[in-house]
Amino acid sequence: MSGTDRIRRLVPLLIIAAVIPAQGEGPLFVGGPLDNEGVPYRWTINPLTYWTDLGNLGGLTNTQANDLVQEALRAWQDIPTASMNFTRSGALGADVTISNWAAVVNAIEGCAPLDPDGVARERSIIYDTTGDIIDEVFGPGNSDSILGFATPTCLTSDVVTNAFTRGYAVMNGKNNPSATELKAVMVHEFGHMLGLDHSQINVECLGFFGCPDNDSAAGLPTMFPILVEAGEMTSPSTDDIAGLSALYPDPSFTTTTGRITGRILFSDGLTPTQGFNVVARRVDDPLTTADESKRTAVSSSSGFLFTGDNGTPLNLYPGLSPSPYGSRNQDLIGYYEILGLPPGFYTVEVEAYDSSFTLGSGVGPLGALGIVFPMPSATCPDGEFLSADESNDDLCADKTTLTVNAGGQISTGTDIILNGTPPRYDAWESGP
Fold first, then answer.
1. Contacts of 83 (CB under 8 A, 6+ apart)
2. Distance (Å, rounded) from C-alpha 267 to C-alpha 122?
3. Residue 405 belongs to some domain of the structure
């Protein structure tokens, strides 16, 4: 697909209607002290049943919208290293509109037994054909830019298994988005409903004209917070495939792919740091016309299993601080885990999240709270690589190549020390 053929519509794909503990490339929710701590939430129902609205979706008839939902779910179902199937159980009890949507969502989120004669079902796909629901949730006029939102809900845990039991998605049909755009939005939102967070790969695609080349577009995750290349984002990228496979692994996942784990540290080389994007990129093969480093990349957020709010004066979760989600194990604060890498040669880099990726468009446990940290060193504003001689004053572009084998894990020599961070203690404090 040529650069002029790609759809360049910069539209926020997701704003959750409540503050959520997003955790980075993989899980959206991670268990806290009252659950199986540090373990992601997932669906234990397979096949996952769902119900669709009775209304139309923009210019699509109800039948066409239902078919598009099925296509979007099949994009996740067809991932060979994941094991998750879907079955449509029927229609909701009525056409969901601005007049009854709140009652439907309240019934779903209430987690009590649902009225079998009511409108709501455990997993409801709602068609907001006029955009009125979007405007009521996010404010007047937002239906012109927000194409959908979704979330799993009713989380349960027996301290062994952390599970979702319900969920819903709202699709915006106002302004008659194309079928391609709607499918990209559906794939993205259903990713959230399955338990996936946003991810950042090939952030250069945020430019006014979209991705600068086909390689960047091909590697762009469908879980990217902004709809940039609708045609490409209807299909999961390597990053998306890794995220879903980690939550719902097929037995082949651990035997056919490899992983890299490590920590991101401040300049003292000891203190872990949370909230940076870590990306493993396949080394480009000069004998091919494609740029494999753009096409085959997987990300992780440093500290993605750790809580975003362990109780602070900021009261980041009003009425619910500290957050019930995320591990309190401090060894996980800077920990990253990049899974699902096809065998080959890789580099690893750390970068800041884009400043616009916050709250509903956030990435990682801090981005969901509206916090984005810039790279600390003025000499490495765009990030820095893992190098063979990793230190707090190595060159930003120095990089080492790691060999990833099928079924293998690399966890030695993978810590990245950030350049230019301030001393941990000031002159008036005691320290090591």
1. 46, 248, 249, 250
2. 48
3. yes
